[in-house]
Amino acid sequence: MRFLHTSDWHLGRSFHRVNLLAAQRAFLDHLVATVRAREIDAVLVAGDVYDRAVPPLAAVELFDDALHRLAGLGVPTVMISGNHDSARRLGVGSGLMERAGIHLRTDPAECGTPVVLADAHGPVALYGLPYLEPAMVRDTLGARRADHAEVLGAAMDQVRADLAGRPTGTRSVVLAHAFVTGGAVSDSERDITVGGVASVPVTVFDGVDYAALGHLHGCQTLTERVRYSGSPLAYSFSEADHRKSSWIVELDADGAVHAERVDCPVPRPLARIRGRLEQLLDDPTAARHEDSWVEATLTDTARPHEPMARLVKRFPHLVSLVFDPDEGPTRSLASYAQRLRGRSDQEIAEDFVEHVRSGRAADEQERAELRSAIDEVRVDDMVAEVAR
């Protein structure tokens, strides 16, 4: 049986205020085309379908269109909710959708109830384990403690118990949305440490032929039978080096796994550049980044004048500007109280300007504007005192 394993679509998410709806639509076009061209038997979506619990209407419409197209191909889809999704909202209508081959698994109480498919070699049981928030599902799953390892372990106990009662030779697949020990993280995954230690051991998935994981955005192999597909699009610059892809996974007659990566369409490459402003504007080697989404880190000791406007002329898709001076202020920093002692409001204000500009002091005009502002505040304070 041949599966397409994907996850972390995050429909409705933007990239540094850049709307990604067109890129997400292009990915779903690619997914449907791959299902058709590669004769996929089932699609596995391991959570975080949406980027937030109440997604924008455009994201819901995109999701609806994707489900209609997959159902139209007659290819079953098994989908779980992730930590970004609202399980209740995503699961609305699941009973009706199941008749069309769309199997939404959002209820923790159903972890041990599989979707059963079959091929020429016999049955395959697919178990959907939605994201399990420890404090909320501990009692439902009968876990001893409210932490991630315990609740996921309890869910897997239900999977293994159900599998043990099925015909000999039944192959098995689990979909789960979790942080598994050994996985590489990025900046764009929401922290799930609430409820204890976030990570769970890979051994929790022992006993099944394949675990299709979601949550981490990098495509990665923890073992031959336990893999993350990663997100189809980059959602932070920490993913600049990711190769965005899905897995095509084949289970043979004995449950052996054969996996192949299928690249996702890239709307625009990501680039991180670093240096002083004039260097970045003049560096001929940076020409390859002129069509990329760019994060520029400026190392100038003092903030240059209008750096964003100047950089955008060369890098029109610059979306992030960071300041990280090579050299900080030369004066040693005493405690805040020590630096304030005996200093006037004017001096304190001028010191603040120098600090935020990494050592460049206020000029005469700026000092005059600070003095005027401080005088106005003093007058207002005196008027208020008289009124009291």
UniProtKB/TrEMBL annotation:
Residues 267-356 form the Nuclease SbcCD subunit D C-terminal domain. Transmembrane segments: none annotated. GO terms for molecular function: 3'-5' exonuclease activity; endonuclease activity. The keyword Isomerase does not apply. Signal peptide: none annotated. Keywords: DNA recombination, DNA replication, Endonuclease, Exonuclease, Hydrolase, Nuclease. Residues 1-218 form the Calcineurin-like phosphoesterase domain. One of its GO terms (biological process) is DNA recombination. NCBIfam families: sbcd (TIGR00619). Belongs to the SbcD family. SbcCD cleaves DNA hairpin structures. These structures can inhibit DNA replication and are intermediates in certain DNA recombination reactions. The complex acts as a 3'->5' double strand exonuclease that can open hairpins. It also has a 5' single-strand endonuclease activity. Heterodimer of SbcC and SbcD. PANTHER family: COMPONENT OF ATP-DEPENDENT DSDNA EXONUCLEASE, NUCLEASE SBCCD SUBUNIT D. This is Nuclease SbcCD subunit D. It comes from Streptomyces tubercidicus. The gene is sbcD.
